[in-house]
Design brief:
Layout lengths: L6 E10 L2 E10 L5 E5 L9 H12 L3 E5 L4 H10 L6 H16 L9 E6 L1 H12 L4 E7 L17 E6 L3 H11 L6 E6 L11 H17 L3
Parallel strand pairs: 3-4, 3-5, 5-6, 6-7, 7-8
Antiparallel strand pairs: 1-2, 2-4
Length: 222
C-alpha cells in the first residue's frame, strides 16, 4: 500500500485586490505542485465535493488552496439574488488575485500552479489561466460551464481537462462547444452514469482520480 504524504495545513487569508478572502492551504511534504479551487454556483471553500477532490490530490502529493470567492456580505446577497455566482468577471478577478498571492507564499512559491473549477468556477478558471498564462500550468473543470469563458478560450495555453457526467446532457454539449475553441492541449472526459453533481456511488472518486492524474502529469517538474 502506498504511503500517504504528510500534509501541513494552514488557515489563510487570501489577499485579492481590495478584499481579503478566507481559505485553507494544504501542503504535502515534497509537493509536486499546487492546485487552487474555484468553487461553483452557491458554494464555498467548504464544498464537500471539492474537499473530497482536494483530499485525493493531497494524498497524491499535490498542495491545494480552497478559498471563498465571495466575501461574507456578497455571499449573503447571492443566496437571495444569485447575482454574484454568474459574475464571471468578478470570480476571475478573485482567482487571479489568488494566483498572484500564491506566488508570494513561501510554502508554494516555486511550485507550478493548477486550477480546478466547478460549475461557473470553471469559466473563471479558464479566464484566469488565459490572464496568467505564464503562471498556470494545468486546468481541470468538473461539471463546469467553460463556455462562459467566452473569448478567453482560444487564449488558454494550459493543458485543460473537461470532466462531465454522462447523464448531464446539456452540459456535455456546452463542454464540447467550449473544447472546440481551445487551441491548447485538451480533452473532454465523460463519466458514464453520472449526473451534474456526480452524486452517484463512485462517480466523484472517478472525477478525483482523473483530475489527480492530469495535474500530476502537467505540474510535476522534470
Amino acid at each position: 500500500m502506498a504511503r500517504r504524504a504528510a500534509v501541513e495545513r494552514f488557515e489563510v487569508v487570501v489577499g485579492s485586490r481590495e478584499v481579503s478572502l478566507p481559505g485553507s492551504l494544504a501542503v504535502p511534504r515534497h509537493a509536486a505542485g499546487i492546485v487552487a479551487f474555484a468553487h461553483g454556483s452557491g458554494s464555498s471553500r467548504f464544498s464537500p465535493r471539492n474537499l473530497a477532490v482536494a483530499n485525493t490530490l493531497n494524498e497524491a502529493g499535490l498542495a491545494t488552496l480552497l478559498f471563498d470567492l465571495l466575501t461574507a456580505e456578497e455571499n449573503a446577497i447571492d443566496l437571495r439574488t444569485r447575482e454574484f455566482r454568474f459574475d464571471i468577471d468578478l470570480l476571475t478577478e478573485r482567482l487571479v488575485g489568488a494566483i498572484d498571492w500564491l506566488g508570494g507564499r513561501d510554502e508554494v512559491a516555486d511550485m507550478r500552479i493548477g486550477l480546478f473549477g466547478a460549475s461557473t468556477g470553471a469559466a473563471a478558471a479558464l479566464r484566469a489561466a488565459a490572464d496568467r498564462a505564464d503562471s498556470v500550468s494545468a486546468v481541470v473543470s468538473r461539471g463546469g460551464r467553460p463556455d462562459l469563458a467566452g473569448d478567453a478560450l482560444p487564449q488558454v495555453k494550459a493543458p485543460t481537462l473537461l470532466i462531465v457526467g454522462g447523464e448531464d446532457g446539456p452540459v456535455i454539449g456546452m463542454n464540447r462547444q467550449a473544447a472546440s475553441r481551445l487551441h491548447c492541449e485538451h480533452r473532454v472526459d465523460i463519466v458514464p452514469g453520472a449526473t451534474h453533481l456526480f452524486e452517484e456511488p463512485g462517480k466523484l472518486e472517478q472525477v478525483a482520480q482523473l483530475a489527480c492524474d492530469w495535474f500530476l502529469q502537467h505540474l510535476r517538474r522534470p
